[in-house]
Amino acid sequence: MQERCSATVVCGNAGSGKSTLARRMAAEQRAVLVDIDTCTERLVQQVLLAHGLDPADRDSPRYKQLLRDPVYEQMFDIASENLAHVPCILVGPFTSERRDPAWPERLRQRLQAPVRIVIVHCDPAERRRRIEQRGNPRDVGKLSDWSDYAALGVDRETPPFEHVWVDTTSR
Fold first, then answer.
1. Burial track 157-169 (b if 16+ CB lie within 10 A, e otherwise)
2. How far, in Å, are 128, 142, 150, 156 from residue 147 at the CA level?
3. Residue 2 placed within a domain
4. Are 89 and 8 in contact (CB under 8 A)?
5. With bands split at pLDDT 50, 70 and 90, how would you rate the model's confidence at 114?
6. Would you say the C-alpha torsion 114, 25, 39, 61 has a positive or negative sign?
7. Does some domain include residue 78?
8. What is the pLDDT of residues 130-144, one digit of tens each?
9. 3-state secondary structure of 71
10. Could you tell me if residue 15 is inside a domain?
11. Which of 25, 81, 147, 171 is found 20 to 30 A from 32 (Cα to Cα)?
């Protein structure tokens, strides 16, 4: 069996710079970019609308119940298919996963490939500025209750596994 290419998972909160960093990494490595939003956004909006929900919602318990796991599994399916031929850069928040010491090993098994985790961090004030500037409807809830959203803390927690930490505050 041919050895599979490596996967790099770029995680971080909204506005941290994970997509920008991942695009640069994909270009440098000539890797497939598998961004959670690009892979699933249109379908997610349709599912939410079909359930009478806000198509911009990504934070409610109902969104998480309906779509969180399938959205991530779709990313992993796309990456897995491509890892037989080229490296992949996967981009998503992976909020819960960043707290799980066993996640990198489960991901290696799921993808059948070497995995590197990159955690992207940014100062909360800069994150807010970036989120306001991009004007994405999915960010309205975050901005309307910024103090609670920014206080979630996962952005500042050190993951319980080997990872690369990238601070994008000044980029």
1. eebeeebeebebe
2. 10, 9, 5, 15
3. no
4. yes
5. very high
6. positive
7. yes
8. 999 999 888 888 888
9. helix
10. yes
11. 171
pTM above 0.70, yes or no: yes
Q: By three-state DSSP, how is residue 91 classified? A: strand
The total number of structural domains in the chain stands at: 1
| Whole-number Å distance between alpha carbons of 166 and 36 | 20
Please name the amino acid found at residue 19.
Answer: S
* DSSP at 24: H
Helix-helix angle 36-50:69-82, to 10 degrees: 140
Burial status of residue 155 (CB atoms within 10 A of its CB: 0-12, 13-18, 19 or more): buried
Domain that holds residue 79: 7-167
Q: Residue 117 has what pLDDT?
A: 98
The two three-digit tokens of residue 71, written as one number: 């959205």
Phi, then psi, of 67 in degrees rounded to 5: -125, -20
- Does any domain span residue 1? no
Q: Specify the pLDDT at position 1.
A: 46
Question: What residue type is 54 in one-letter code?
Answer: D
Angstrom distance (rounded) from CA 103 to CA 161: 8
Q: What is the CATH number of the domain that holds 25?
A: 3.40.50.300
HSE, CB side, 13 Å, CA atoms: give it for residue 32: 21
